[in-house]
Amino acid sequence: xxxxxxxxxxxxxxxxxxxxxxxxxxxxxxxxxxxxxxxxxxxxxxxxxxxxxxxxxxxxxxxxxxxxxxxxxxxxxxxxxxxxxxxxxxxxxxxxxxxxxxxxxxxxxxxxxxxxxxxxxxxxxxxxxxxxxxxxxxxxxxxxxxxxxxxxxxxxxxxxxxxxxxxxxxxxxxxxxxxxxxxxxxxxx
Length: 189
Known about the structure:
Elements: H1 2-22, H2 35-53, H3 62-89, H4 94-100, H5 103-134, H6 137-162, H7 168-176, H8 182-188
Helix pairs in contact: 1-2, 1-6, 2-3, 3-5, 3-8, 6-7
């Protein structure tokens, strides 16, 4: 069981990081991947979590997988909109961007993004709730271990970023920003 958990967690981290590391720092992230690549990445993440849990036939998984996919699609769409906004501003100077900004429009965009994220998280929690109630103690432990392993790997990646590995620091700065602050990145850059 430990080998399966380690293999699943390793596969999850590799799957999560491969796309990011393959991109140049200026084009890194979901906005630079094709919709099919993003869907494939999400499918791989879903498959890894399902494999690690080793679900029984009576444990209903499709609702969770669908909620994960919808949340990923909405996040990818939000990031694509941000990339489009950044692209439009790339020819403007910082002073022009700051002079022409509209704080009310920014607040409206933030409110819409947060409302969408809230809905997605609620749907994900609602989908997980009945499945989680059917998980055995061992399955719950595997899920917790997978989560901790992924967080540990992100911490290791952050340490490498601090050590100055090229491209890694930019990726980690972007990734370590809370998803709530996606629009804020447009203002800051």
